What we know:
- There is one protein chain.
- The protein is of the alpha+beta class.
- The chain has one domain (6-140).
- It has helices at residues 81-108, 111-136; strands at 6-12, 23-24, 27-32, 43-51, 54-65, 72-77, 140-144.
- Strands 2-3-4-5-6-1-7 form a 7-stranded mixed β-sheet, with helices on one face.
- The two termini are 17 Å apart.
Amino acid sequence: xxxxxxxxxxxxxxxxxxxxxxxxxxxxxxxxxxxxxxxxxxxxxxxxxxxxxxxxxxxxxxxxxxxxxxxxxxxxxxxxxxxxxxxxxxxxxxxxxxxxxxxxxxxxxxxxxxxxxxxxxxxxxxxxxxxxxxxxxxxxxxxxxxxxxxxxxxxx
Length: 156
């Protein structure tokens, strides 16, 4: 465990919970905002309600292995406020620096600049996304808790 690691108390799931998320045209629920994997390869991800693919309401936070679409849920953890804020900030960044400029350039300028901005913005999003996951996200250490904590465990 490194000095920067955060301890999270994970409650094992009472039964094998299937990983079922459903979205139709961006409306539904999905797992997003995964944390950096721990030494076992497991990570935390938050289940969100989405509208037009935009995360609106965080529902639960899971400790899991595998991919976000077909992984295995190992346990449930309290929501992390800093994770929720990071997810909202990422969504606002993508809308503000990708979607809105591309739409405005498409309306007022035509196709040439719109295509250039779209390519630059998508490269920027991919590069920043990889840096975010590799360097800027905290690493969490799971501690199994058999008892149900009546009060949420702070993660800040």
